[in-house]
Design brief:
The protein is an alpha/beta fold. About 35% of the residues lie in helices and about 15% in strands. The two termini are about 30 Å apart. The structure holds nicotinamide-adenine-dinucleotide.
């Protein structure tokens, strides 16, 4: 039977799509060496975020025709190498927008209401914390978005409707968005916002987009939320900003190195809320993306063009 490599087990609904058609080969670990060893006879790859599909892996898998991401970010695929080799790169845009937007609101509220500190205080018998006046209300505050594509625009809508927030945003590629004041610089957004939330893809242009300079423009009582990719924020600069209390706190679903080291200084702060890159991992979402990513592989290997092809233009497809 023809083989499909899966970088890490996917939801059973996705496995069902392959059943009887392709033999799944699940990577036992996330090292490049293991992938190189197992890729020689596979025709498709279903890729989660645990490994990067490098040119070396593609060289070792001469029969690979399609790489399908169970998500929207394709920063863990060498797309240039794939396109050069005629390999289709697929993703699942939009399918995780609801889950990531919901998680963003959960993180925003947990920062505003200081839930991490409050929970810790109750467990430690520090009932007096209720008088500390640490929580703030969100109603009417300003949300500053960096990137207003599928996720960012949904966060904008939810925050406007749920909390009557004023929403401002920086996204040089978006010319109009209902109910959102678009700013021409990132500086204008971060200097006015009470909550800054990042929703850009990771690429050369967005590497350390939020650096020491940008952080220094944030208000001392403002919060940063990152559910995009770790390296969009200069983590060292963020730690310094937290140390100097030049911002009020941060919520991070993503890190520069994943998983982060237990020694990461970010874990010392009570005003930092973290999640293990789990924004898109709700039960509903993992099922949807697993089925869509697996279907893309089956479609292409059976001669049909998948719904979402990321490198369509590079491959000259319609
Ligand atoms: P999208 O492509 O719909 O939107 C991205 C937006 O960023 C676009 O509007 C684009 O114009 C804008 N942008 C690009 N470069 C920019 C720049 N330099 N400055 C400002 N804006 C810029 O993508 P999406 O579905 O909204 O997802 C956004 C990102 O969120 C993904 O690329 C992915 O990395 C991340 N993500 C994370 C998780 C998670 O589990 N934490 C899940 C899904 C997506």
């Amino acid at each position: 039977m023809r083989k499909v490599l899966i970088s890490k087990a996917i939801n059973p609904a996705g496995m069902k799509v392959l059943e009887g058609k392709f033999e799944p080969v699940i990577l036992p670990d996330s090292s490049e060496e293991t992938a190189i060893r197992l890729v020689s006879d596979v025709e498709g790859v279903i890729l989660r975020t645990n490994i990067r599909v490098t040119r070396k892996i593609m060289d070792a898998g001469p029969h690979i025709k399609v790489i399908s991401r169970t998500g929207v970010g394709i920063d863990n695929v060498d797309v240039a190498a794939a396109t050069e080799k005629g390999i289709l790169v697929c993703n699942t845009p939009g399918l995780n927008a609801i889950s990531v937007a919901e998680q963003t609101l959960a993180l925003l509220l947990s920062l505003a209401k200081q839930l991490r500190l409050m929970d810790k205080s109750v467990r430690e018998g520090n009932w007096k914390m209720r008088y500390a006046e640490r929580a703030v209300d969100v109603e009417g505050k300003t949300l500053g978005l960096i990137g207003v594509g599928r996720i960012g625009s949904l966060v904008a809508l939810k925050c406007r409707l749920a909390f009557n927030m004023k929403v401002i945003a920086y996204d040089p590629y978006v010319k109009h968005l209902e109910g959102v004041e678009l700013c021409s610089t990132i500086d204008q957004v971060v200097s006015q916002a009470d909550f800054v939330s990042i929703h850009v893809p990771y690429m050369e242009e967005t590497h350390h987009l939020v650096d020491a300079r940008v952080l220094s423009l944030m208000k001392p009582d403002s919060y940063l939320i990152n559910t995009a990719r770790g390296a969009v924020v200069d983590e060292k600069a963020l730690i310094e900003a937290l140390e100097h209390e030049s911002i009020a706190g941060a919520a991070l679903d993503v890190f520069e190195k994943e998983p982060p080291s237990p020694e990461n200084p970010l874990f010392r702060f009570d005003n930092v809320v973290t999640a293990p890159h789990s924004s898109a991992l709700s039960r509903e979402c993992v099922m949807k993306v697993a089925v869509t990513a697996a279907q893309a592989v089956v479609d292409f290997l059976e001669g049909r063009q998948p719904k979402y092809v990321y490198n369509k233009d590079g491959l000259g497809l319609k």
